[in-house]
Model the fold of this input.
Amino acid sequence: MRNISFGLGEMYRGVVISAQVKQLQRFVPELKASDVTRGPSGVRAQALDADGQLVDDFVFDGGVGEIGSRVLHVRNAPSPAATSSLSIAKMIADKIQNTFTL
Done:
C-alpha cells in the first residue's frame, strides 16, 4: 500500500492529458496540451527493494554454479531509447568486464 499514491498519480496522468502536460512542463515549460497527442501505452515493470521502496536504478545479479556464474542479469532497466543508451551500454560493459575479469 506504500506506493498506491504514486500508482494512482500515474493512472490519473495517463487519463488526464493536462495533468501529464503540467508535469512535463517542469522540463519543457513552453509545452502546451495541444502539442500532445495520445499514443499507444505499455507496461513497464518497476522493481521494489526488500522494504517495498521503488528501485530507481539497475539491479545486477548473476547465478550460481558452473553456468550461472557466467551469467549477468540486468534487471529494472529503464527504457531510455536513444537518450542514454550508449552510456547505459558502457555501464553494462564495464560491469561485465569487472564481474568476469575480462
User: Anything to note?
Assistant: Helices lie at 4-15, 17-24, 65-68, 85-99. The mean pLDDT is 84. The two ends are 43 Å apart (CA to CA).
